[in-house]
């Protein structure tokens, strides 16, 4: 007979197998042993041709007491992003809140009663709940304020308070490509609308974002988001941008001088803030251009059209194209409601067919470039809602789409070195954004 062989096999219970596959269970239970009994299978020594006989041996093991430490006070922390279709009820369900008393308090408390009306999509809401869904604390950021409302359980009831947010700036690098429109491209790249609007304002004097965009135009951005506890609360400003439009590249860098004045400049320090914006509307379309002979649809006669008409819905904001003083504010013949603003030197602008004027905009009032001064309407001789816009030099109308606009003051020579040092990191970020864009295209 060959040399005898023996082997001991052990077989554990299914509970032990699960614990072996999931060692985290041991850590979660503080290393408490859960083994109550182990079964051992012994094999008797055998030779060739012998049959194997199995003998079961049961060994009783002592069972330590199991203590589920702390589970009686289990709490859960959950964050949810507000969706477009959300109501207060649907949001609280996703947050794991099952507490009618808490909902009643939120709806009735003066400080929290507005929460249901502030469910802005994308806002992050945080809730701390108990084991059965009872609300322990709710953190809700307020619209338009750097603050959050906190609802906390106190005994058998709730209290509410407002806490100022400790906002921290985070730099974001993004890029995109125009397929149809600016906002479609920024949406596709996950860029907030507020940043898209800033982008249009920065390059608005050089690019008409309604008429000049081409499919394949590319842009790269470096901008700030302001966060609280790691969650975005609102966007900050664009720090650097580049826009390639119709084979021409425009760039911009934010720079704040020692006197506290900030603005956007090209890479070589030229001021991007033109003395005049190219258009009084952020986004619109030209429905009638500047011409010496146009058939008037109401007067049914040929006459000169000494301005540009922008089609837009009634109520669309009209902005001042430059700093100035209101020279006229009222109704005037075919213009309907008309606003005339006197600017530096020999320049003035006129805005006609307005539905109404902005608050405080009256004769003698000072206005700033980009400030909302009025709203699109259909007053006077107008067949549809639009803005009639005139650019005047020495009180004579000129074509606002072709006139050479005066430039703003560039950086002084003594500021160039400071500008280059301050924007060095931004140039690196912008180059990174461009590389991301090119890699995506490839």
Give an account of the 3D structure.
By secondary structure, the protein is of the alpha+beta class. It is 16% helix and 38% strand. The protein is built from eight helices and 25 strands. The protein has helices at residues 14-21, 24-28, 88-94, 100-108, 182-188, 193-202, 416-422, 424-441, and strands spanning 8-11, 37-43, 54-60, 75-81, 124-130, 135-141, 147-154, 157-164, 168-177, 218-228, 231-245, 248-256, 262-265, 285-288, 291-296, 301-305, 308-311, 317-319, 324-331, 337-342, 347-357, 366-367, 372-376, 386-393, 396-398. Strands 14, 17, 18, 19, 20, 21, 22, 23, 24 and 25 form a ten-stranded antiparallel beta sheet that branches. It is globular. Residues 1-50 and 65-71 have low confidence and may be disordered.
CATH architecture of the domain at 285-398: Distorted Sandwich
Radius of gyration: 35 Å
| Helix percent band | 10-25%
CATH class of the domain at 285-398: Mainly Beta
Strand content: 35-45%
Supply the helix-strand structural class: alpha+beta
Spell out the CATH superfamily of the domain at 285-398. Glucose Permease (Domain IIA)
Q: Give unreliable regions as ranges.
A: 1-50, 65-71
CATH-assigned fold name of the domain at 285-398: Glucose Permease (Domain IIA)
